[in-house]
Design brief:
The chain is of the alpha+beta class. It has 2 helices and 5 strands; from the N terminus they run H-E-E-E-H-E-E. It has a single domain, classed as HIT-like (HIT family, subunit A, 2-Layer Sandwich), CATH 3.30.428. The model has no long low-confidence stretch (mean pLDDT about 95). The protein binds adenosine monophosphate.
Length: about 130
């Protein structure tokens, strides 16, 4: 396993009390939640980029994909399994869907709580813009 065992330092560590996605997990901010699992919550993106656009997030605050460590393996597997359930329930498992982690400025990462975009329901191009 090549993952680092120590979580790398991040430039801006968000206090979970200030984190909008932690507050969705806590039920303090409303969201259109479509799936829950032991480690994750999935809810519809406020600004959908396709017919299906759901965010799968870990209940525990993890900053982004660049700060994931080997100890997060169970959470990461749960995120992908939850994404598959979202795709099945939203009817895009057969037509196809895209799973995206944005990291950093060039990738337009805007919310500093790990989230897996599940995007489907239309044909997509590659590479992304
Ligand atoms: P990213 O650019 O990867 O950081 O994506 C963040 C995503 O979170 C964007 O697609 C936003 O539309 C979405 N978003 C931000 N706030 C909320 C919210 N309160 N509920 C649902 N989606 C949100």
């Amino acid at each position: 396993m090549v993952l680092p065992s120590d979580r790398p330092a991040v430039s801006e560590t968000t206090n979970p009390q200030d984190c909008i996605f932690c507050r969705i997990v806590a039920g303090e901010i409303p969201a259109d939640i479509v799936e829950r699992s032991d480690h994750c919550v999935a809810f519809r993106d406020l600004n959908p980029q396709a017919l299906v656009h759901v965010l799968v997030i870990p209940r525990r605050h993890i900053e982004n994909a660049a700060t994931v460590v080997a100890d997060d393996a169970e959470v990461m597997a749960d995120m992908i399994v939850t994404a598959r359930r979202v795709a099945e329930n939203d009817g895009v498992a057969d037509s196809g869907y895209r799973l995206v982690f944005n990291v950093g400025e060039d990738a337009t990462n805007s919310v500093p709580h790990l989230h897996l975009h599940v995007i489907g329901g239309r044909p997509m191009s590659w590479p992304p813009g």
